Amino acid sequence: MTPAELAPAFFLAVVVILVVCRLVTRLLQTVGQPPVVGEMLAGVVLGPSVLGALLPGVEEELFPGELRPVLYVVGQIGLVAFMFHVGWEFRVDRLRGVAGSTLKVSAAGMAAPVALGAGLTLVAGERTGALAPGVSLTVSALFVGVALAVTAFPMLARIITERGLGGTRYGALSLGAGAVDDVVAWVLLAGVFSLAGGTPSLVSEAVAGGVGLVVLLALVARARGRAVRLAERVAPENLLLGLVGALFLVGWYTDSVGLYAVFGAFSLGLVFPRSERLDHTVEKLTPVGAAFLPLFFTYSGLNTDFTLLGDGPVLLFTVGCVAVAVAGKFGACWLAARAAGEPNGVALRVGALMNARGLMQLVALNLGLAAGIVTQAIFSALVVVALVTTVAATPLIALIERVERRREARSHGLAADRG
Questions:
Q1: Which CATH number fits domain 94-285+306-418: 1.25.40.10, 1.20.1530.20, 3.40.50.410, 3.40.50.300?
Q2: How far is residue 239's CA from residue 378's CA, in Å, rounded to a whole number?
Q3: Tell me, what's the pLDDT at 142?
Q4: Whole-model pTM?
Q5: If both were cysteines, with which of 11, 82, 219, 296 could 75 make a disulfide (CB 3.0 to 4.6 Å apart)?
Q6: Spans of all domains in the chain
Q7: Mind giving me the DSSP string for 267-290?
Q8: 310: DSSP letter
């Protein structure tokens, strides 16, 4: 397709994506699911698993092969805008008083899924016949392990914000542990790519680049006062252009060093100066994420084909991945929180929130697919993990709350009877 032909195809595809996302999101909101979950599922609906299976000609007409890279690139714009806003809304002061528990939960939430996921792949991966040719079993195993260790930090933050849990102990603990887990996961992912490509320098570049990012962010944080004063003298349209330029620049930098644009965007949001005028400028980016983030989910959905899971060994491997993912995140984080002295109710909620993979796992899977580390079958199997664990997060929290309320009512009833 020529650029002149791609433009109208892109416009039509975006309209279809936004309409389907809105319909699926509205439907799932009736059962308490956050919008990000609806967008994830809408992406799968538009891919070969649903639309392609029912109307293959329509899917190919809407999303021709030449259009898919365009969807990916524009989807990245929505992704970094969304992650910047998540970082901007995040409050580091919420982590005061839970630092010790955060580190323990984070360590358990990384070590257990990596070990279980890698172990499952080493034992059963080759039997599926779906591992990437030319990729060593060790690299495949480590990639699966790291993918299962990712936490859906953006969705976790959104759930906590929408449900008003930011001031709770388990909300702060989950946010802190989820943020640490995702930072570590990106460094480990760089290590896996280093092994796959035979270039150990990728790990050192990621670590050095991360140190450079911390220094840069520290300088930005120290210059907040001057930035606020400068913003008062700059035209609003220039403020927005400056913000977009800074966001894309930090995205380019973190992509270049192997930490990926989403991490850079979130980090910039954390230290971005605050004032009435700057806050208004940040809010102007919100529609960008709302409009373009669904394109990333659709790109992931177009690479997801659940019909590839019909083969017995691949299906069993998928079930095994879901099992070890839940055990490695929910189970390990719950145990770690209990070991850190947290009450059982707090520990259960932390486990339920940390268990969600969502957006961040999809980012990792797309990188692995593009690098040839995973096949479309393994990609689809791990998308199932992302969907199951993400969809389960909100109902699990609601279930824990209902059980606690019943116990409290029962306790009050017993106390009244004794009185």
A1: 1.20.1530.20
A2: 44
A3: 93
A4: 0.83
A5: 296
A6: 94-285+306-418
A7: HHHHH----HHHHHHHHTTHHHHH
A8: G
